[in-house]
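Observation: inputs received (chain + zinc ion).
Thought: call the complex predictor directly.
Action: predict_structure
Action Input:
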Amino acid sequence: MLSHVEVTARVAVTPATHFVWSNRLDFTHDCLVCLRVGRLMQLRHGMPYGLCTGNEHPAPIRVSAFDATDHGTERRLRCRITSWWAPFNDLMEPDVQASELAAQPWVRLNYRVGCHICRDNGVSGWLGIEGDLTSGAGQVTSSCPRCETELVTASGPPEINLAC
Ligand SMILES: [Zn+2]
Ligand SMILES: [Zn+2]
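Observation:
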């Protein structure tokens, strides 16, 4: 059956920040192909299938919607992960049943940041700062590695919910 999960995240940026969400994300999923629970899937918006990092096989899971929006100083991301799912028991641990949403849902969202202060000062590589937002993380503030201007503050981890 088709299953949908919605991942939402928000960060706050400063006027010095150039901010772009990456279209790549990592997501924990009970994999119907290799019949293992809690596999890490590499997903990319625009790619029609995911990659299960268990043994790097294609898996019927993809990012079916990816909406980045700006609300004042907030940068929000809402993405929908669609997969083909059916009940199974883990191949190595037969007592463990797969579920539509992994027992411990986990996601990593990536972003790229630039520093306008460095750009205006002609510093090369002002755009090359990468960061991520991960389940389990608390409040995180990222600053420019060159001029130490505050750029991004995440006040909490992404939310993961089953959607209909
Ligand atoms: Zn797999
Ligand atoms: Zn800077």
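Thought: report the result.
Final Answer: The helical segments are 116-120. The longest helix spans residues 116-120.
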